Amino acid sequence: MASRRLLIIGLIAFLAAVAGVFVGRILVDAPRANETELHALLHRELKLSADQEKRIHLIEARFAARRDALELEMRAANIRLAQAIDAEHGYGPQVTQAIDETHEVMGDLQKETLQHLFAMRGVLDREQAAMFDKRVVKALTADAR
Ligand SMILES: [Zn+2]
Description:
Blueprint: H1 2-44, H2 50-88, H3 93-121, H4 126-140
Helix pairs in contact: 1-2, 1-3, 1-4, 2-3
Bound molecules: zinc ion (ZN).
């Protein structure tokens, strides 16, 4: 009986971990995919000058490091969420707090992603910026379609 109980606890812990990772994937990958799509647009369709290309690459390098850091934080928050689910087996105070933490990191990631996009937009001329804006709106409403 004891081993069966252990097995069940192990299974719950495993499911909690999988759920944490899965939720994290969805939260982190969505803005990343949109941002990647915009980068593709910048490089392929906007016909950047050599100077613009250089400035945008600097902005991207800076953001890539910051995004990696935030994604690590996101993974850590997901592990805490999995642990909280494992500890409480329900919607208790630890789970609530872990979810709030996850949202805080996600919010930071979204804010910094947008700041990053606007920094890149600042490099564009008026015509390029208009195309960029159109794509941003499209990327942001992609889920709603
Ligand atoms: Zn790029």
